[in-house]
Amino acid sequence: MSSDRAETTMPCDAAQREMALAARDIELLLGSIRSILVTLDGHNRVRRFNASAETVFGLTAGSAAGRDFFDLGICWEGPDVRLALEESRRAHAPVRVDEVRCRTAAGEERLLGLTVNPVDPAGDEAPGALILGQDLGEIKARELKAIHERRMQAIGRLAAGIAHEINTPVQYVGYNAGFLDEAFTELLALLQAHGRLLEAVEAGDAPAVAAAAAEARRVAGETDIDYLRQEIPAAIANTRKGIGQVADIVRAMRQMSHPGTGEMLFFDVNASVRDIVAVTRNAWKHVAEVTLDLSPELPLVYGAPHEVSQVLLNVVLNAAQAVEERVAAEPWRHGSILVSSRLVPGFAEIAVADNGPGMDEAVRGRIFDPFFTTKAVGKGTGQGLAISHAVMTRHGGGIDCLSRPGEGTTFFLRFPLEDGQTQHGAA
């Protein structure tokens, strides 16, 4: 009899150990989840409060356990969370609360995204609930940091090209300055010779007049007046052009490198396009011709200018790299990039079209995925378009792409316009 009891007890002990191990594994798994995870019983009493919930709400699991979720000292803005719990239980379906603000017991403001899921009751108990959530403030902070890092990386890659772009006009400004200095010296000598001749004539000194006239003829013979008459205006015009190019690049770089505050305001997106084309010139000038077709009717758009500049930078650089890839494979091909703007119903639209190799549907469907890239190792992080998508979504607009293998790619950026908006930017 005793041996029978022993044989019966051993499997039970093994099963209990397995259950204990399974329970421990579940606890470890739930504890490692980075999302907020709170489970409630049918009376909204806290049954589980994971580490992320502790961090976000500033409470320990022990202090929250068994207490009414709405008596934890968390001050919710509005009734959305309570209503979501009621609706989830009633409909027996998940209910999302996309953005809800709260103030923790410690007085910290939080912006959360929550999903309330119903939990089947055990026995006669009322239905419970599983609340999953994320700290949207933290997510947005990470996005802004990623945008800033991406912008700084892009500016770093552009630095050598910018230096070259500035160096070229500076070189011919320097050359023209040297030429004008020599021309001034020659013309001054000629003026001085004629001045001495005039003085001799006014003095009535015939020998002096003859000597001064001979000197004036000699200096005039050494000075190519026709050449100077043609080249001096050209040198001045080229110098002004060079100074203007440098000024444009510096202005565009100042706009690009300004850290910004994230402040939303009305701005001229056509001007942002011109700035980006200026600072990226060294990336495309050897492989493509860039054409601008910017609508003068485009209104000012509402957004964060430095974030939009980052999106434009990503898209234009991608176009330049795509064209470079195709021209390298097909040296006879003429690369082209068209950047245009226009009004479409409800939106201001920027389009960046290239005649690069294009993408098939499988690649095109993944280009906005974080860390997805078709570039070689070290040539791209796969974050640029994902960040661009997040920025455009946050602006209430969007970014789309049309592409066909062998035909090229066009990216469309759309910025929402207010009803009746008529305030225009400069074309």
Element layout with pairings:
Blueprint: H1 2-32, E1 36-40, E2 46-49, H2 51-57, H3 61-64, E3 75-76, H4 80-91, E4 95-103, E5 109-119, E6 128-135, H5 136-203, H6 206-222, H7 225-257, E7 265-267, H8 269-279, H9 281-284, E8 288-294, E9 301-303, H10 305-329, E10 335-344, E11 347-354, H11 361-364, H12 384-394, E12 398-404, E13 408-416
Parallel strand pairs: 8-10
Antiparallel strand pairs: 1-2, 1-6, 3-4, 4-5, 5-6, 7-9, 10-11, 11-13, 12-13
Helix pairs in contact: 5-6, 5-7, 5-10, 5-12, 7-8, 8-10, 10-12
In short:
It holds the Pfam family HATPase_c. With 427 residues, the protein is α+β, with helices and mostly antiparallel strands.
What does this structure look like?
One of its GO terms (molecular function) is ATP binding. It is an enzyme of class 2 (transferase). It comes from Solidesulfovibrio magneticus (strain ATCC 700980 / DSM 13731 / RS-1). Its EC number is 2.7.13.3. It catalyses: ATP + protein L-histidine = ADP + protein N-phospho-L-histidine. The chain is of the alpha+beta class. It has 3 domains: 17-126, Beta-Lactamase (2-Layer Sandwich), CATH 3.30.450; 141-259; 262-427, Heat Shock Protein 90 (2-Layer Sandwich). 53% of the residues lie in helices and 20% in strands. The chain has a 6-stranded antiparallel sheet with strand order 2-1-6-5-4-3. It has a 5-stranded mixed sheet with strand order 8-10-11-13-12. β5 and β6 form a beta hairpin. It is elongated.
